[in-house]
Amino acid sequence: MDAVILAAGIGKRMKTKLPKVLHPIDDTPMICYLLKTICKVNQINNIIIVVPPDYKLISETIKRYFPSDSVRIHFAIQKNQLGTGDAFMAARNSGQVKSDDIFVFCGDMPLISLATIKKLLEIYEKTEQDAIILTAIFENPAGYGRIVKDKNNRVLKIVEHRDANKNELKIKEVNSGVYIFKKEPVLNVLNLLKNKNDQKEYYLTDVIYYLNKKKRMVTAYTTDDSAEICGINQREELAYVEKLRNQRKIKILMLEGVSFENPDTCYISDETSIGMDTYIETGVIIRGRSIIGKNCRIGACSVLKDVVIYDNTKIYPLTRMY
Fold this sequence. Notes:
This protein is α/β, with parallel strands linked by helices. The strands form six sheets. Strands 5-4-1-6-10-7-11 form a seven-stranded mixed β-sheet, with helices on both faces. It has a four-stranded parallel β-sheet with strand order 12-15-18-21, with helices on one face. The longest helix has 21 residues, at 235-255. The mean pLDDT is 94. The chain has eight helices and 22 strands.
């Protein structure tokens, strides 16, 4: 299976000169979270990243973070910003798509889990669909494409928010931008895409409509964790995803036997490990590849980065260790 990552967006709403997918979450470019997860999927042996023409910084960053996987990571240039459909065409035109099945991701979705990817693959393989879409239920689905189904729960089409009518806007099941396609059917309908929409772009979502017209089977899998499909288009969303990442890390640590006096005030890096029965006071920040031993106490407002703290150690308040 090939994976195609759409990562050519320039991030206009981010107000930045840095490529959007390189904006950091916990000091790591957001696209690296997705790549780290994808590289754990045994079925995926070829990764095509769709990038803008000035992609040197993106490619150099990815090669630095994934030196051992660089042989299977390729880049396809999207010359113009003409939408997700155009980006997918760039992947096709690169000649790098080799397999019969194509897994499509968005480069600004760092929270998608390995478990969700595997579940999507499992359903796709068991049901022998021509396409499967990862969806989620949002109480406030503003801005997301809506999943339109028939009475038998078959996906008929995806309608972007800007182009949806009043009835379609009431739908709470939304598109994540993550798909698995059979290569032959999707490439056959790709040239049917038109840009007659509010943004004058070619939407990859429209291939679902054309697959249905060709009597191809399309289904959806709805994730229980809607946070997994959160995309990032502006800095407020970047901060929100960072907050979710931090909350998940702290929850994992608490389940492993770490106590937090006030977890909402603490920041813990994904790469940090903390031993059982350690107590973290209010306002603690721990960054980098820090290792905190068992039965420690980290005092309020301590700031630690890339440190090793042995078992049974007490770090007093207002400690900074770099």
